[in-house]
Amino acid sequence: MFGLSKEAGFKLDNTRLMRLISFLFPLAIIFAVIFTFLWMFAAGKLAYALRGLFTGIPAILSCLFILFIYKKDVSLHDIDVYPPLSTKSLTYLFGIFYISSLVVLLLSEGSRPPYYFIFILGLYLSVFLQIFSKKVNPPLILAETFLIAINLIYSVTLNYDFYFGTTDILPHIFLSEVTAMSGRTIPTSLSDYAYFPLYHVLIAETSELLNISTKNSLFLVTAPIYAITIIFLYYLFNYITNNRQISLLSCVLFSVSSVVLYYGVNVITRTMAFIMFIVLLYLVYSVNFKKDKLSLKALSVIVAVFLTLVHNVSLPQLVLLLIILLISEYIIGNGSYISKPFFILLNVIFTSYWFFIAYIFVQRSLAPRLQSQFLDSIVLTAGGAEVLQESLINLVGLLDKSIFLFFALIGISFLLKNYRNNYASVLGLFALLTLIFYVPNPLNTIWQFKVLFRVDRFMLFVSPFMAFVMGYGLYIFWNYMSKYSPRKVNSATIVVLLFSTFVLVSSIYSIGDSDFLGQGARHEYFTSEELSGFEHIFKYVPIDSSIYTDYYSSRFFYLPLIPATSAEMNISSYDNYRIGDVNKLSQYRGYIVLRTKEFLRSGLYFGSEESTLRDTANYFYQGLPENQLELQSNLAGLSKIYSSSSTDIFIPHKGLNNP
């Protein structure tokens, strides 16, 4: 594997190493699947094991297909299975489907009916067929993909009364509003984001310029900024592959992946860091392909500074990915496109800023996570109700991951085997090394990885590379099936069917708002009636009162302690608590806010707060008949002061003294 000579010294034998990796690759995948199932059974997590079937089975099937690829000569050429419709006809069809989807949204305000997703599927199919038409038009395809992404994002953020998503949107709206009201960055006493203010400055500025609320500003402006990454990725992939079909296909798959769709409606600080990471990669690689290198290098430094100032902990994670990318380049040995001096500069910029300027953030947020009691033993997460209460309709939502893994492993295997003079193999090896961040695996059950160090956030950061290897795999699969499959098997039909399933499942299950899935979906938004009840609180409940409610509502009422220097902003704050136990409602000394309609529809998340970093396990209180009786019994000792079809507000008979 390694060679040693007087002239060259210690040198990596790339040929032998790549042969070994390509040989062990299928065996390692099979071993990983078996190990994961044993882990889940040993830990007693049968629900996770059941979900694992949707990734384990396609992984094994993909490995078997890889063995056939190794025995056959699969040449990489443009796919010549042209659709019967011309590019012009497909463009007209796209326009018809797009207008129809907008009409559906306008007629179904506050919901996304099933036929909306049928039109979305039609849009993606028209784009997909254009990629393999006789006259490929990349600018047109990219523009159409951009429009679909905007359509899907606005169908959530501008369609519902108040979408909150990950609930991090709520405090970011608040911090942006404080920035807009004060005309300066927030004080350090308000939040550690005082050291990372660019996101809130952007939202505040657009709010003032457009004369709209910070909430509308966040949703309206961030969507096109997020969707523009599709264009940067196309040029990045095309630089590397010099293949327009693979590059366009990868961008389409990226835009419709469930991870990308979910973060498209949750463009918060870490999502903005991801956007700039894509721009940074484009600039770093463009230095190797364009003549005007000085301007690109200057822009790279500006983007590096932006990354430092937009989010607190994304940069170390992105640096780790760059390290893996550098290692992949070294192992493949087909050229070094990542500038090592720039990589060092990037680290110097953010570490200097952290320890010389944002040192309070390091003391408050980072140092506590390194305490020994959090690292002394492995802690397994309990898993949410959505994992413990599986049903067939929920498991169908994993089909997109199954299809992804099948094609991604094929793409990775082809790139590793054909690595010579092919820099794309670097991205293939990188995808293999980071696949553990993207697919369900035992790391998802370890508390230290999932909660303490937020490994789950890597899913978005590696999603472009996963879309690339998936696009490569689909391309190879189609080439192979067209050449070697029996005449009775129509390879184009199989590919289109798998692509359609991927699109439909990803678009439907990425956001929890589709009640037609057979069960009450977990709505990640507040309705107008619920907002009216919340407005009643702001109007009539005195400041510093105690409010007890469910997890999502508590995030709405959550406002950090306002420093005395910011009192002129006239910001109201409450002592905010989650309902820890419905049997203790009569003991609470504050206002109890219940989203009654949501409780009856799909249930509410309750759970007490903790002062440590270990997340409290929110328990899911479903609207079952026995729970309805229990809640009604405990509310009998309270006085109802507000009631609507969706929200009820209570106070105890014993008074409203704070606990």
Automatic annotation (TrEMBL):
<feature type="transmembrane region" description="Helical">
    <location>
        <begin position="140"/>
        <end position="160"/>
    </location>
</feature>
<feature type="transmembrane region" description="Helical">
    <location>
        <begin position="48"/>
        <end position="70"/>
    </location>
</feature>
<feature type="transmembrane region" description="Helical">
    <location>
        <begin position="423"/>
        <end position="440"/>
    </location>
</feature>
<keyword id="KW-0812">Transmembrane</keyword>
<feature type="transmembrane region" description="Helical">
    <location>
        <begin position="301"/>
        <end position="327"/>
    </location>
</feature>
<feature type="transmembrane region" description="Helical">
    <location>
        <begin position="342"/>
        <end position="362"/>
    </location>
</feature>
<feature type="transmembrane region" description="Helical">
    <location>
        <begin position="492"/>
        <end position="512"/>
    </location>
</feature>
<feature type="transmembrane region" description="Helical">
    <location>
        <begin position="20"/>
        <end position="42"/>
    </location>
</feature>
<keyword id="KW-1133">Transmembrane helix</keyword>
<feature type="transmembrane region" description="Helical">
    <location>
        <begin position="217"/>
        <end position="237"/>
    </location>
</feature>
<feature type="transmembrane region" description="Helical">
    <location>
        <begin position="114"/>
        <end position="133"/>
    </location>
</feature>
<protein>
    <recommendedName>
        <fullName>DUF2206 domain-containing protein</fullName>
    </recommendedName>
</protein>
<keyword id="KW-0472">Membrane</keyword>
<feature type="transmembrane region" description="Helical">
    <location>
        <begin position="246"/>
        <end position="265"/>
    </location>
</feature>
<feature type="transmembrane region" description="Helical">
    <location>
        <begin position="271"/>
        <end position="289"/>
    </location>
</feature>
<feature type="transmembrane region" description="Helical">
    <location>
        <begin position="460"/>
        <end position="480"/>
    </location>
</feature>
<feature type="transmembrane region" description="Helical">
    <location>
        <begin position="398"/>
        <end position="416"/>
    </location>
</feature>
<feature type="transmembrane region" description="Helical">
    <location>
        <begin position="90"/>
        <end position="108"/>
    </location>
</feature>
